[in-house]
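Protocol step 4 of 6: structure prediction from sequence.
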Amino acid sequence: MIFIINFIIKLKMNKSISCGLYHSVALKDDGTLECWGSNKYNQCDLVYKSFTNIITVACGTYHSVALQDNGTLECWGDNEYNQCDSVYKTFNNIISVVCGSKHSVALKDDGTLECWGFNGYNQCDLVYKTFTNIISVACGWNHSVVLRSDGTLECWGNKSWNQCDPVYKTFTAVINVACGENHSVALRNDGTIECWGNNRYNQCDLVYKTFTNVINVVCGHHHSVAIKYDGTIECWGDNFYNQCNQVYKTFVCVIDVACGGDHSVALKSDGTLECWGHNSQNQCDSLYKTFTSVIAVACGGNHSVALKSDGTLECWGNNAKNQCDSVYKTFTKIRLPYKDYILK
């Protein structure tokens, strides 16, 4: 089971599709990018066309960050809160990058961090400079959590909803972590999970204590999904929009899940999808039932993108800001997420 979990972590660190609130970015085989959706905050500014040798990409609400194969970064989109402050140009030896709503965190090859962007809730408080031996990073809306090589955690940023409640200091043997808007979930090496932060919508309802044999955790705004070793899933948290509708109990052979704001998409081992949750903007339009040969999926606020094994894309959900503009139909040779390390 540990091998499977390590593989999942590698997939998370090497995304070839990523979604912001109203835009999406896809990484191509040749190391260049495609971007579509809202451009109100320059999320799809054509500057991205000049980037080369990209190996992974991450999206915040209105900005994006691309990691190049030489360990440097490129950033574009909204800069109102210094999300694309040129300080990122000084960073090197980066091996992965993750975005919160308006801030970003980069992990370096020596296990230290760099952080930039909005600091209104101490998202970039210099306490992060004291963290060492980091192997993984996750970001919520305005907080961040890092996993150390010894299985312990560090957390910083907004604390108004107990996102950084020191209870996390008691967790050990952690091997993966995910963040929702104001809560976090940690996966332990025995297949159990811990949860802390905002519990207004039952994000940390103690039902999670009953889950076993978990191999991956994913978070939406106010709900979470756990994938189990047997290919079934568990879901808890906000259910106002059917995010935890019991239909998920019927899904089998699930190998991955992506969460949008209030909807989720499950990828099955046969390359098909299941979708549940909020559907007011066609997030769960039955169109997804027609997709086959899917190997990866990503979710924005109210839209989703699926990558197929032939390097093409499918997109569905809210299109009010061109999130599903048919331009994506012209994209080919999107990089398969396991391309560079599947045999390693």
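Step 5 (inspection) to follow. The mean pLDDT is 95.
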